Amino acid sequence: MNIEEFRSIFEKCLKKLFKKDKLLFEIDLKEECINSALLFHLREALPDLVKEDYNFDLEYNKYKEVEKIMDNGRSVRPDILIHKRTIQKFNFLFVEAKKGQLRKGDKAKVNDALKDPYLYQFGVVVSYLPKKNYCFYWLLTTGEEFTNKKRMRLEKW
After folding, report:
1. In whole angstroms, what is the distance from residue 110 CA to residue 39 CA?
2. Can you tell me whether residue 124 is helix, strand or coil?
3. CATH for 124
4. Which DSSP state fits 48?
5. Are 126 and 153 in contact (CB under 8 A)?
6. Tens of pLDDT, residues 113-153
7. Per-residue buried b or exposed e for 16-51, using 16+ beta carbons within 10 Å of the residue's own CB
8. How many domains is the chain built from?
9. Three-state SS for 145?
């Protein structure tokens, strides 16, 4: 799958999240609950990965028994992962998603996940801004930098 194909799938999942799960934003639930709903929509949208036994995980911070460590030496607990838990070469998606403004280092985590040893095929940073009725996301693939991607503003939900 190329980046444009995945971008289309990811945007459809975000739109479905905002439409079907609007209540999660309206009653100000925590980002983990929102991310769980987004993961559900991603799983629905990627049936081939489900058939190939990929794992769709929230807050998964291990590779086998070892913590995931980024370039800065710190352990990381990604918000959403699509991968095979014990097979490094099948790392598909790494997502950092925040309710509100992104935190310092969120983009770096995603960028690091696209590099050796993890080599995720795609990385996404999402900033849900429900009080402003929009979100931003940045989508990367291996070899790209955040400076080369423009921010995408989604329609109001």
Report:
1. 17
2. strand
3. 3.90.1570
4. H
5. no
6. 898 888 999 999 999 887 777 788 888 887 666 554 445 55
7. bbbeebeebbeeebebeebbbbbbbbbeebbeebee
8. 1
9. coil
What pTM does this model have? 0.87
Query: What count of other Cβ atoms lies within 10 Å of the Cβ of residue 130?
Result: 19
- The long-range contacts involving 101-108, CB below 8 angstroms and separated by at least 24 positions, are 101/127, 101/129, 102/127, 105/72, 107/138, 107/146, 108/70, 108/71, 108/72
Identify each DSSP E strand in the chain by its residue range: 55-58, 62-63, 66-67, 80-83, 91-99, 122-129, 134-141, 152-153
Q: What is the pLDDT of residues 9-65, one digit of tens each?
A: 999 999 899 889 989 988 888 999 999 999 999 999 999 999 999 999 998 766 555
Which of 30, 52, 53, 50 minimizes the C-alpha distance to 42? Answer: 50
Residue 42 DSSP label: H
